[in-house]
Amino acid sequence: MGHLLIFGLGYTASVIADRLRALGWRVDATGRAGNIAFADRAGVLAALDGASHVLSSVPPANEKEGGGDPVLDSYGMALAGKWLGYLSSTGVYGDTKGAWVDESTPTGTGRRSARAVCDARWLDAGAHIFRLPGIYGPGRSAFDRIADGRAHRIDLPGQVFSRVHVEDIASGVIAAMGGGLPPQAWNLADDLPCSQNTVIEHACRLLGVAPPPLLALDQAGLSPMARGFYLENRRVANGKAKRLLGWRPLYPTFREGLAAIAQAERFAP
Protein backbone atom coordinates (compact mmCIF):
# COMPACT_ATOMS: atom_id res chain seq x y z
CA MET A 1 0.00 0.00 0.00
CA GLY A 2 1.01 3.60 -0.38
CA HIS A 3 2.01 6.41 1.93
CA LEU A 4 0.05 9.65 1.58
CA LEU A 5 0.99 13.05 2.98
CA ILE A 6 -1.95 15.43 3.19
CA PHE A 7 -1.37 19.15 3.47
CA GLY A 8 -4.36 20.53 5.35
CA LEU A 9 -6.40 17.83 7.11
CA GLY A 10 -9.78 19.53 6.91
CA TYR A 11 -13.31 18.22 6.47
CA THR A 12 -12.89 16.64 3.04
CA ALA A 13 -9.30 15.51 3.42
CA SER A 14 -10.17 13.76 6.69
CA VAL A 15 -12.70 11.57 4.88
CA ILE A 16 -10.12 10.73 2.20
CA ALA A 17 -7.60 9.88 4.93
CA ASP A 18 -10.06 7.60 6.73
CA ARG A 19 -10.92 5.71 3.53
CA LEU A 20 -7.26 5.17 2.67
CA ARG A 21 -6.30 4.07 6.18
CA ALA A 22 -9.10 1.50 5.97
CA LEU A 23 -7.40 0.20 2.80
CA GLY A 24 -4.10 -0.17 4.62
CA TRP A 25 -2.42 3.08 3.62
CA ARG A 26 -0.17 5.10 5.87
CA VAL A 27 -1.43 8.68 6.07
CA ASP A 28 0.41 11.64 7.58
CA ALA A 29 -1.04 15.13 7.58
CA THR A 30 -0.51 18.73 8.50
CA GLY A 31 -3.23 20.86 10.04
CA ARG A 32 -4.91 21.06 13.42
CA ALA A 33 -6.13 17.47 13.12
CA GLY A 34 -2.88 16.20 11.64
CA ASN A 35 0.27 14.77 13.17
CA ILE A 36 2.77 17.24 11.65
CA ALA A 37 2.86 21.03 11.96
CA PHE A 38 3.05 22.77 8.59
CA ALA A 39 5.85 25.00 9.92
CA ASP A 40 7.87 21.98 11.14
CA ARG A 41 10.08 21.95 8.08
CA ALA A 42 12.18 18.98 9.18
CA GLY A 43 9.06 16.95 10.02
CA VAL A 44 7.34 17.79 6.73
CA LEU A 45 10.43 17.03 4.65
CA ALA A 46 10.88 13.71 6.44
CA ALA A 47 7.27 12.78 5.70
CA LEU A 48 7.69 13.87 2.08
CA ASP A 49 10.79 11.75 1.75
CA GLY A 50 8.79 8.63 2.58
CA ALA A 51 5.53 9.55 0.85
CA SER A 52 4.48 8.06 -2.46
CA HIS A 53 1.49 10.39 -2.80
CA VAL A 54 0.84 14.01 -1.78
CA LEU A 55 -2.55 15.72 -1.58
CA SER A 56 -3.08 19.39 -0.80
CA SER A 57 -6.32 20.91 0.42
CA VAL A 58 -4.62 24.14 1.55
CA PRO A 59 -6.39 27.21 0.12
CA PRO A 60 -4.56 30.10 -1.50
CA ALA A 61 -2.89 32.63 0.75
CA ASN A 62 -4.73 35.90 1.39
CA GLU A 63 -4.74 37.91 -1.83
CA LYS A 64 -3.44 40.89 0.13
CA GLU A 65 -0.38 38.74 0.77
CA GLY A 66 0.03 37.99 -2.92
CA GLY A 67 -2.39 35.07 -3.20
CA GLY A 68 0.36 32.48 -3.40
CA ASP A 69 0.06 28.77 -2.72
CA PRO A 70 1.50 27.99 0.74
CA VAL A 71 2.44 24.40 -0.11
CA LEU A 72 4.11 25.07 -3.44
CA ASP A 73 5.84 28.15 -2.08
CA SER A 74 7.20 26.32 0.98
CA TYR A 75 7.73 22.74 -0.18
CA GLY A 76 7.39 22.69 -3.95
CA MET A 77 11.03 21.71 -4.44
CA ALA A 78 10.46 18.47 -2.52
CA LEU A 79 7.44 17.24 -4.51
CA ALA A 80 9.22 15.82 -7.53
CA GLY A 81 8.55 12.15 -8.22
CA LYS A 82 5.37 11.99 -6.14
CA TRP A 83 1.80 11.45 -7.24
CA LEU A 84 0.27 14.88 -6.62
CA GLY A 85 -3.32 15.92 -6.03
CA TYR A 86 -4.91 19.30 -5.32
CA LEU A 87 -8.42 20.00 -4.06
CA SER A 88 -9.56 23.02 -6.05
CA SER A 89 -12.93 24.67 -6.69
CA THR A 90 -15.34 24.93 -9.60
CA GLY A 91 -15.33 28.63 -8.71
CA VAL A 92 -12.32 28.87 -11.03
CA TYR A 93 -14.78 28.76 -13.95
CA GLY A 94 -16.56 31.94 -12.90
CA ASP A 95 -20.13 32.82 -13.85
CA THR A 96 -21.52 31.13 -16.97
CA LYS A 97 -25.12 32.30 -16.52
CA GLY A 98 -26.28 28.74 -15.89
CA ALA A 99 -24.39 27.10 -18.77
CA TRP A 100 -22.54 23.82 -18.30
CA VAL A 101 -18.80 23.80 -17.60
CA ASP A 102 -16.39 20.95 -18.12
CA GLU A 103 -12.65 20.61 -17.66
CA SER A 104 -11.97 22.35 -20.99
CA THR A 105 -13.81 25.52 -19.90
CA PRO A 106 -11.42 28.46 -19.43
CA THR A 107 -10.60 29.32 -15.82
CA GLY A 108 -9.61 32.52 -14.06
CA THR A 109 -12.57 34.72 -14.99
CA GLY A 110 -14.49 34.52 -11.70
CA ARG A 111 -14.23 35.82 -8.16
CA ARG A 112 -11.84 33.00 -7.21
CA SER A 113 -8.85 34.55 -9.01
CA ALA A 114 -6.27 33.39 -6.45
CA ARG A 115 -7.73 29.88 -6.53
CA ALA A 116 -7.49 29.84 -10.32
CA VAL A 117 -3.83 30.84 -10.15
CA CYS A 118 -3.08 28.06 -7.65
CA ASP A 119 -5.12 25.59 -9.70
CA ALA A 120 -2.94 26.38 -12.73
CA ARG A 121 0.28 26.21 -10.72
CA TRP A 122 -0.55 22.75 -9.37
CA LEU A 123 -1.48 21.58 -12.86
CA ASP A 124 1.87 22.84 -14.14
CA ALA A 125 3.56 21.00 -11.25
CA GLY A 126 2.09 17.71 -12.48
CA ALA A 127 -0.87 17.34 -10.12
CA HIS A 128 -4.33 15.90 -10.55
CA ILE A 129 -6.70 18.82 -9.95
CA PHE A 130 -10.05 18.03 -8.35
CA ARG A 131 -12.45 20.91 -9.02
CA LEU A 132 -15.20 20.74 -6.42
CA PRO A 133 -18.55 22.54 -6.19
CA GLY A 134 -20.51 22.98 -2.95
CA ILE A 135 -19.37 20.23 -0.56
CA TYR A 136 -21.83 18.64 1.85
CA GLY A 137 -21.98 15.61 4.11
CA PRO A 138 -22.58 14.62 7.74
CA GLY A 139 -22.19 17.65 9.98
CA ARG A 140 -22.12 20.00 6.99
CA SER A 141 -25.44 19.92 5.19
CA ALA A 142 -28.72 21.76 4.74
CA PHE A 143 -29.88 20.15 7.99
CA ASP A 144 -27.16 21.98 9.91
CA ARG A 145 -27.96 25.32 8.27
CA ILE A 146 -31.63 24.88 9.10
CA ALA A 147 -30.85 23.96 12.72
CA ASP A 148 -28.51 26.96 13.10
CA GLY A 149 -30.86 29.44 11.46
CA ARG A 150 -28.43 29.92 8.56
CA ALA A 151 -30.66 28.45 5.84
CA HIS A 152 -31.82 30.92 3.19
CA ARG A 153 -34.19 30.89 0.27
CA ILE A 154 -33.16 33.60 -2.17
CA ASP A 155 -35.47 34.84 -4.91
CA LEU A 156 -33.19 34.41 -7.93
CA PRO A 157 -35.16 32.66 -10.70
CA GLY A 158 -32.97 30.45 -12.86
CA GLN A 159 -30.13 30.34 -10.33
CA VAL A 160 -28.53 26.89 -10.10
CA PHE A 161 -25.56 25.35 -8.33
CA SER A 162 -23.79 22.02 -8.41
CA ARG A 163 -22.82 20.15 -5.27
CA VAL A 164 -21.07 16.95 -4.25
CA HIS A 165 -21.20 14.66 -1.22
CA VAL A 166 -17.90 14.37 0.61
CA GLU A 167 -17.86 10.59 0.20
CA ASP A 168 -18.06 11.01 -3.56
CA ILE A 169 -15.06 13.32 -3.48
CA ALA A 170 -13.13 10.65 -1.58
CA SER A 171 -14.03 7.94 -4.08
CA GLY A 172 -13.06 10.17 -7.01
CA VAL A 173 -9.70 11.10 -5.53
CA ILE A 174 -8.91 7.48 -4.67
CA ALA A 175 -9.88 6.38 -8.19
CA ALA A 176 -7.44 8.92 -9.65
CA MET A 177 -4.70 7.80 -7.26
CA GLY A 178 -4.87 4.27 -8.62
CA GLY A 179 -5.97 4.93 -12.17
CA GLY A 180 -2.56 5.23 -13.81
CA LEU A 181 -3.69 8.27 -15.79
CA PRO A 182 -1.51 11.33 -16.43
CA PRO A 183 -2.10 14.42 -14.29
CA GLN A 184 -5.13 16.45 -15.38
CA ALA A 185 -8.20 18.27 -14.07
CA TRP A 186 -11.31 16.46 -12.86
CA ASN A 187 -14.74 17.87 -12.04
CA LEU A 188 -16.30 15.89 -9.18
CA ALA A 189 -19.96 16.91 -8.95
CA ASP A 190 -23.28 15.14 -8.65
CA ASP A 191 -25.71 14.61 -11.53
CA LEU A 192 -28.34 17.23 -10.66
CA PRO A 193 -27.46 20.92 -10.58
CA CYS A 194 -30.36 22.80 -9.01
CA SER A 195 -31.20 25.85 -6.97
CA GLN A 196 -30.20 26.07 -3.33
CA ASN A 197 -33.87 26.77 -2.61
CA THR A 198 -34.78 23.29 -3.87
CA VAL A 199 -32.28 21.66 -1.49
CA ILE A 200 -33.40 23.70 1.52
CA GLU A 201 -37.08 23.00 0.81
CA HIS A 202 -36.41 19.26 0.51
CA ALA A 203 -34.44 19.21 3.77
CA CYS A 204 -37.24 21.08 5.53
CA ARG A 205 -39.74 18.48 4.31
CA LEU A 206 -37.55 15.69 5.69
CA LEU A 207 -37.38 17.50 9.04
CA GLY A 208 -41.07 18.36 9.05
CA VAL A 209 -40.43 22.09 9.46
CA ALA A 210 -41.53 25.14 7.50
CA PRO A 211 -38.98 26.48 5.01
CA PRO A 212 -37.42 29.88 5.62
CA PRO A 213 -39.06 32.86 3.90
CA LEU A 214 -38.23 33.69 0.30
CA LEU A 215 -36.09 36.84 0.32
CA ALA A 216 -34.47 39.13 -2.18
CA LEU A 217 -30.68 38.90 -2.21
CA ASP A 218 -30.34 42.30 -0.53
CA GLN A 219 -32.70 41.27 2.27
CA ALA A 220 -30.90 38.11 3.32
CA GLY A 221 -28.04 39.72 5.26
CA LEU A 222 -25.45 37.49 3.63
CA SER A 223 -21.73 37.78 4.22
CA PRO A 224 -19.69 39.08 1.27
CA MET A 225 -18.46 35.52 0.66
CA ALA A 226 -21.98 34.05 0.66
CA ARG A 227 -23.26 36.89 -1.50
CA GLY A 228 -20.52 36.20 -4.02
CA PHE A 229 -21.66 32.57 -4.09
CA TYR A 230 -25.08 33.70 -5.31
CA LEU A 231 -23.64 36.00 -7.96
CA GLU A 232 -22.32 33.04 -9.96
CA ASN A 233 -24.52 30.61 -11.85
CA ARG A 234 -23.26 27.44 -13.54
CA ARG A 235 -23.83 23.73 -14.04
CA VAL A 236 -20.83 21.41 -13.55
CA ALA A 237 -20.44 18.42 -15.89
CA ASN A 238 -18.95 15.24 -14.41
CA GLY A 239 -18.74 13.06 -17.53
CA LYS A 240 -14.96 13.02 -17.80
CA ALA A 241 -14.48 11.43 -14.36
CA LYS A 242 -17.15 8.88 -15.19
CA ARG A 243 -15.59 7.97 -18.54
CA LEU A 244 -11.92 7.89 -17.62
CA LEU A 245 -11.90 7.04 -13.91
CA GLY A 246 -14.95 4.79 -13.87
CA TRP A 247 -16.22 7.05 -11.07
CA ARG A 248 -19.89 6.97 -10.17
CA PRO A 249 -21.29 9.14 -7.39
CA LEU A 250 -22.82 7.10 -4.60
CA TYR A 251 -25.15 10.05 -4.10
CA PRO A 252 -26.09 11.13 -7.65
CA THR A 253 -28.43 13.86 -6.37
CA PHE A 254 -28.98 15.79 -3.17
CA ARG A 255 -32.00 13.59 -2.43
CA GLU A 256 -29.92 10.44 -1.91
CA GLY A 257 -27.27 12.41 -0.07
CA LEU A 258 -29.68 14.06 2.36
CA ALA A 259 -31.52 10.78 2.93
CA ALA A 260 -28.27 9.08 3.94
CA ILE A 261 -27.34 11.96 6.26
CA ALA A 262 -30.80 11.93 7.80
CA GLN A 263 -30.48 8.22 8.50
CA ALA A 264 -26.96 8.55 9.91
CA GLU A 265 -27.91 11.50 12.08
CA ARG A 266 -31.17 9.87 13.11
CA PHE A 267 -33.53 12.23 11.45
CA ALA A 268 -36.67 10.77 9.93
CA PRO A 269 -36.66 10.89 6.12
From TrEMBL:
It comes from Alteraurantiacibacter palmitatis. The keyword NAD applies. Keywords: NAD. This is SDR family NAD(P)-dependent oxidoreductase. InterPro entries: NAD(P)-bd_dom_sf.
